[in-house]
Amino acid sequence: xxxxxxxxxxxxxxxxxxxxxxxxxxxxxxxxxxxxxxxxxxxxxxxxxxxxxxxxxxxxxxxxxxxxxxxxxxxxxxxxxxxxxxxxxxxxxxxxxxxxxxxxxxxxxxxxxxxxxxxxxxxxxxxxxxxxxxxxxxxxxxxxxxxxxxxxx
Length: 153
Prior knowledge:
This is CbbX AAA lid domain-containing protein. InterPro entries: AAA_lid_6, CbxX/CfxQ, CbxX/CfxQ_RuBisCO_ESX, P-loop_NTPase. The protein is an all-alpha fold. It is built from eight helices and two strands, in the order αααβαααβαα. Strands 1-2 form a two-stranded parallel ribbon. It is elongated and about 65 Å long.
């Protein structure tokens, strides 16, 4: 890094505590990585806005009841977050699982309309346990916890 410092930018990103351990793991890192930026977690409303944006970008509409369900689920996701909270990554996981459930749901329709093909409903947003009536109102991202990856996405 030293030999090419005028031509090189290195960015490392991750959870605050883990990045602190990384920087302190080698005495030379602290002097080389000397600019720090901290980002607050997205709140429930911001998570919902990200979800709406993903839906719109991919041509999906949310049924009104699904919009209300998702807003509550993202508020709850934010309020119950822990050190593994993934911010927009968790929203992306909810979106991808919802699209997969929606595809399975509409595949069973004989002649689905364009609206049915592009609308996400509450069952599309619920995790598998909730589909069976076993769970509460958790968004699909919490159905299968994934290993934490560094940084806010």
